[in-house]
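User: I'm writing a tutorial on reading structure tokens. Could you give me a worked example: one chain, its sequence, then its tokens, then a sentence or two explaining what the tokens reveal?
Assistant: Sure. Here is the example chain.
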Amino acid sequence: MDCRKIADDVYTLASLEGDHLAPFVKEALDVIDQCLDTHGPDNVSLSFNGGKDCTVLLHLYAGAIARRLKDGQEMKPIHAIYIPVPSPFKVLEDFIAEATKLYNLDLFSCKPEDPVIESVPTPAPMKSQTDYVDVPKPVGKSKGGEGMREALQTYKDTFPHITAILIGTRRTDPHGAKLSHRNMTDPGWPSFERVNPIINWSYTDVWAFLRRLNVPYCSLYDEGYTSLGSTFNTFPNPALLVPPSPSTEMPLTASSIITPSTTLSHVMSDTHQTSTAPSSNKDNTNNDPLTPTGILSSIMSATHTLAKGVLPSSITGPARQSVIVETQRPPSLKIARYRPAYELQDGNLERSGRGTTQPQVNYQ
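And here are its predicted structure tokens:
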């Protein structure tokens, strides 16, 4: 990443009169600059876990540091700490690795022995997709505080010169309501100043910034996730569900359980509408995968191996698709598709995909 260009982009945005984002960007940059003035760039670190908020903060921080560079001076690696949750998404960790290279992060991954597990109230869907109520729903066990303290102590022991950590907490986050831009850690915790430059940003502000400046972000957000944590407690947001059309609804009924005869009836309608050139080998009829005999032969082979979870590569075309659909689809499952996170209209529903179990969705 060209951090000098990032600096031009973010400070220009902060100076735009009449732009909704401008005052929020300016406020965040002012807080970062004050932090750098107080502690010095070598003593400040960034908490980075790949989420949308800390991605915004990383981009702002890279711009703030680059703006202080003299002509010909190169950017030093950016100090950062990553505290993983139990069972993180691989896609998220891949993004963290990519961002580490893009922004030249000196990223210290600190996995505590006592896992950092959230325990916070999350909204639960009620009645329909659009009706929600706030129901206290614990996520995991209440060990997050001790795990975080342990990780920060390890970081302090390893990098004693780090005195401030930039954090992407916002006012609407759990435990964020009473925070200010700058807070010291509580008594009994490793001594750091916690700096929250985007504390006053909203959910929509975050996405407006990321998309306005084309900032790279984790691809899970394009799949309907709006708040990321562990795979144990993170699901696509039901508020972003795209109701399936009748053509995509394929409930598995007793009459559609896979057998050679029922699967053959599924694929026969496809083969009747598929034009194929007649085979020049008259003796090859039974081996043609698009003849009833050929399809039945493939399916018979498949039913003897599907119990082992193996689908023969020899099954192709309509026969393969039918076998895959009928064996992999649980009863009454409808194909679910979600809009991207930036299309969520109500930021209050940001954490509606978080909980101990996947939210139940009413398709009606």
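What the tokens reveal: The radius of gyration is 27 Å. Residues 109 and 320 are 44 Å apart (CA to CA).
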